[in-house]
Amino acid sequence: MFRKSYNPHSYWNTVWREFNKHRLSLFALIVIIVLGLIALLAPFIANDIPILLYKGGQLYIFPNVITYSDLQAENLYANFDRWQPSDGDWMVKPPIPHGPFRQNLEHSLQSPNRIHWLGTDDRGRDVLSRMIWGSRLSLSVGFVAVGIAVIIGIVLGSLAGYFGKWVDTLVLRFIELMLVIPTFFLIITVMAFLPPSIWTIMIVIGLTGWPGVARLVRGEFLKQRQMEYVLASQALGLNNTRIMFRHILPNAMGPVFVSATFGLAGAILMESGLSFLGFGVPPPAPSWGELLKQSQGYVDFAWWLVLFPGLAIFITVTAFNLVGEGLRDAMDPRLR
Amino acid sequence: MNGKEPYLKVDNLTKYYPVGGGLFTKARGYVRAVDHVSFNVYPGETVSLVGESGSGKTTVARLILRLVEPTEGSIVFNGVDLTTLKSGELRNIRRKIQIIFQDPYSSLNPRMTVYSMLAEVLLVHRIISREKITEHIEYLLQLVGLNTDAMYRYPHEFSGGQRQRIGIARALAVNPSLLVADEPVSALDVSVQAQILNLLMELQEKLHLTYLIISHDLGVVRHISDRVLVMYLGKIVEEAPTDILFDSPNHPYTKALLSAIPKPDPSATLPKLLAQGEPPSPVNPPPGCSFHPRCPYATEQCKNETPPLFRISETHRSACWVFANTPEKTTV
Question: What is the mean pLDDT of residues B232-239?
């Protein structure tokens, strides 16, 4: 609706400049971006279905993401690992030519080698491929759960902070109620009753994660509500919804972003923990926690089953925490 | 002023803030921020409300804008009682009364350009069609003496005086007829203060505005107002046309205020009359005249009975037992 001009001194530009000074956080951000790209491009990185296939005089583009009905008819999708190109046929395989679900019992429990870079699990599945596909699950659980938590937190927090009085009291009591319940055990209890699926996990983690955000947003709203620009908007007859979400919220988002970044790390850890205990993503879906769970019986000799998924969780969580820290410092004017 | 209908008629306006107390407990007391204040503002005039910090001036301004709900009393604007209106009806009337704030740094949303700030108001109130909006914003900016290229900038790119001009433009966007200015220049440099005051006076003439200026700066008040109301601890203690108030003040508090204006003369002697001590707490105001603990002329009566606003002349009223309560004067 409104035109915008490029403005070299805008708030986010300043934040970005400050963030750039934190070398470690910047590095962590790059790690996250790389992880995100790996998750997005998983079918092109780790798959036994080829990226390009030339078969019987016909070129199939991206059969790894597009299901061709004639290949389906030959039941080729389930058997690409065994398919041998005949004369004139060729294919381009992804750099890691193993599917995350492809079992090969002859190759089970191999330590890291030239074919399976990070080894194989008890059913001969490639650990690296499963980890790459697992990043999809872990990251999307993180983002969706935090998204749900942030939306609930913003709505309740802004209502409480803006309207004050009994609304505030009500929301605050609700927040305190949520904070005294040990979230992890609540989620385990809830998960025990719900059908296990990735969506249930996202929603349950999201529904328990909002109190922190709500408290932050409430605090920011309390602060902003006293500002004269809010009074001016009220005097100008703008309605409360507009004042809350168009005027105050953009000024209150800084701390929310910081807390969301930390929340992402928390949600990823939570999902891994749940999956490890068997309340998470149902097998055979390869979430990092699920990989750890499968390694339980082989810990004493198959170190690669524990080390690599554990490292992936550790690196991701640390990276999100570092980015959150950098963001917090960059947004805090006192530290400039 | 007589014979004219008041444009704004404030009657017995009162705002008590509870102290302590929560959802289930009772308040321990009340801050009497505004205590039965009555005054009129006539069309086209500039009325100033003066008083020291904590006297309730700002609360009066916010009550008139309905930013704060009054505890008691009525605000009749152009024949309509604002205190009884529902929020829907209030919106249309609200356009006619606008406010300029003290702090030009917090009164503009830091995340909105001048354009989006003004366009939002114009569109919400359907003041101008979407196609003509840029043109109208240019007009508003020129009106307050800003360049039209200010439109696409953010508040932090402007100086204090420029920001105050933007604040004025935003208030004027809805075509108000009464402008309440809450300490409009006290946060600005002296040289800029004069510019903004002159702008306000120009605009008054051009747009036929009525002003209610809230200020603690008597120099500013003398410069621009037709009439002055002096507030002390939530009550009006004196009301007079500017010349009369500055030349022959009646209430000892007004005298103390006037004698406290610094004079640009190093050899000037100390002021003759100064209020003693600090203003008392508005939670627990002294009985009788609330100024009596600080007043050198206080009598027994002052300590026990609250003085009404006595009428000294047609336009001059004062709430003082000693100076205003002479036998030939009648009370209002």
Answer: 90
- Which structure tokens are listed for A54? 């030339």
Q: Is residue A171 part of a domain?
A: yes
The alpha carbon of residue B278 is apart from the nearest alpha carbon of chain A, in Å, by 27
b or e along A252-271 (b: 16 or more beta carbons within 10 Å of the residue's beta carbon)? bbbbbebbbbbbbbbbbbbb
CATH number of the domain where residue A317 is located: 1.10.3720.10
Crossing angle of helices A127-163 and A23-40, rounded to 10°: 120
pLDDT confidence of residue B52: 83
Of A2, A5, A229, the CB nearest to B109: A229
Query: What does residue A61 show for φ and ψ, rounded to 5 degrees?
Result: -95, 130
Per-residue model confidence (pLDDT) at position B227: 93
Q: Is A7 on the interface with B (CB under 8 A)?
A: yes
Determine, for residues A237 and B124 on separate chains, whether the beta-carbon distance falls below 8 Å: yes
Overall number of domains in chain A: 1
Answer whether B65 sits within 8 Å of A235, measured CB to CB: yes
Mean pLDDT, chain B, as a whole number?
Answer: 85
Which chain B residue's Cα is nearest to A169? B23
| A217 lies in some domain | yes
Tens digit of each residue's pLDDT (9 = 90 or more) over B62-117: 898 888 888 888 899 888 888 888 777 777 777 889 999 988 888 898 888 899 99
Q: CA A277, CA B154: separation in Å to the nearest integer?
A: 52
Structure tokens of B292?
């009596």
| CB–CB contact A229 B124 (8 Å) | no
pLDDT value at residue A92: 84
Q: Has residue A11 been placed in a domain?
A: no
| Residue range(s) defining the domain that contains residue A221 | 128-335
Q: What single string gives the DSSP state of each residue in A118-139?
A: T-B-TT--BHHHHHHHHHHHHH
Residue to mutate among B101, B102, B109, B134, with most A CBs inside 10 A, is B109
What's the pLDDT at B79? 84
> Which residue stretches of chain A have pLDDT < 50?
1-6
Point out which residues pair with B48 in neighbouring strands.
B213, B228
**DSSP-derived pairing of the beta strands B97-100 and A90-92:** unpaired
Q: Which residues of B touch A9 (CB under 8 A)?
A: 154, 156-157
Mutate to test the interface with B, among A6, A166, A172, A236 (most CBs of B within 10 A): A236
Residue B108 near chain A (CB below 8 Å): yes
Beta strands in B183-259 (DSSP E): 210-215, 227-232, 235-241
**Would A110 be classed as within a structural domain?**
no
